[in-house]
Amino acid sequence: MAYAVEDLEKQRDRRFRRLPRLRVHNERTARQFVDDVGFCLVFTDRTQQLPCLWVAVCGRRNPVFPQHSHYDPEWVLTWNLKDLLPAKRRVYYGKLLLGKPSMVSLAHFADFYALHGPAHDEQYRYDYEDGLLSRVAKQIMDALVERHPQTTKELKRRTHLDASKSRPIFDQAIADLQRRLYITMIEARYEPTFTYVWDLLEVWLPEPVARGRKILRHEAVYRLARQYLSVVYYASLPQLERVVGITRLEVEAAATRLQEEGVIEVGAPINGLPSTWLVWRG
């Protein structure tokens, strides 16, 4: 059976909150949205591989990026929610999905941690010795282990990278530590000058981290694949691989298990789209 892409997109309209009556309009509905979809991008995703908080705030398909974003009410609300929800420990926030700003519900974060997080408190030292972390990244970790949380300015001073020419090196180290789930941004301060505040992830979200360290990898892959497909309704194997950040063999194993359970169809054609797809049947 071939599926109609518009029928699948209408299902996404409801789940992605791309309808005016379902749009996100405050902190409460934003948290409900993230908890419902499990994980999403914060700002636009032109490939539409994932739900997006900004699109849900707009409440329509394919909103146009505002020319003057700081004066756009939908963009401003999304920006404020991006600061508010993580600061209250309502969600995880970081560049976890496709290397872009993302939010993950705490109900699903433990599974991501099982796949991408460090196995124990001292793992960063071993990663540094194995060449997986830079010297600057290790210095940032050493500084946060000694005292946390700290602002960007404080961490730059501790690593002797407060000169403007050193910014790319510092930013890359911060990005690597976020990607490996060692640190997280816990606050954006705007006064007296703009800065981020950073903390050790295991300190900021101790319960999801502890759960994640006990989860078997194949179970985490399965649960995240199931959640993703139940939200987006159709995806390719490469899309699932990129979004969850796993190997093709792991994606295929999870898809086989879901197919055996009868909740997805594998190799399904969709009219108007090339190739074949994984389609959620529920």
Question: Can you walk me through this structure?
Answer:
With 282 residues, the chain is α+β, with helices and mostly antiparallel strands. It has three domains: 13-107; 120-212, Arc Repressor Mutant, subunit A, CATH 1.10.10; 217-280, Orthogonal Bundle (Arc Repressor Mutant, subunit A), CATH 1.10.10. It is built from 14 helices and ten strands. The strands form three sheets. Strands 1-9-10-8 form a four-stranded mixed β-sheet. Strands 2-4-3 form a three-stranded antiparallel β-sheet, with helices on both faces. A three-stranded antiparallel β-sheet has the order 5-7-6. β9 (264-271) and β10 (276-280) form a beta hairpin. The longest helix is centred in the last third of the chain and has 16 residues, at 217-232. The radius of gyration is 20 Å and the shape is globular.
Order of the strands making up the biggest sheet: 1-9-10-8
Mean pLDDT: 94
Number of helices: 14
Compute the number of strand runs: 10
Write the layout of secondary structure elements.
Layout: E1 3-4, H1 5-15, H2 27-37, E2 39-41, H3 53-58, H4 73-87, E3 91-97, E4 100-105, H5 106-116, H6 123-129, H7 135-146, E5 150-151, H8 152-158, H9 167-179, E6 183-189, E7 195-200, H10 201-204, H11 206-212, H12 217-232, E8 234-235, H13 237-244, H14 248-260, E9 264-271, E10 276-280
Parallel strand pairs: 1-9
Antiparallel strand pairs: 2-4, 3-4, 5-7, 6-7, 8-10, 9-10
